[in-house]
Amino acid sequence: EEVLRIVKPQHFLPVHGELLFLKEHELLGKSTGIRHTT
């Protein structure tokens, strides 16, 4: 989470892991203010 806030990416696309992990990564991206999460 801290890394995402420091780097401030415009897009966040998790592509590896089980559905539960992918959904958690999506929520993490949205909670850090990344607009384009999938």
From TrEMBL:
Coiled-coil residues:
none
InterPro entries named in the record: RibonucZ/Hydroxyglut_hydro
Q: Organism's domain of life?
A: Eukaryota
Q: Name the PANTHER family for this protein.
A: RIBONUCLEASE J (PTHR43694:SF1)
Q: What is this protein called?
A: Zn-dependent metallo-hydrolase RNA specificity domain-containing protein
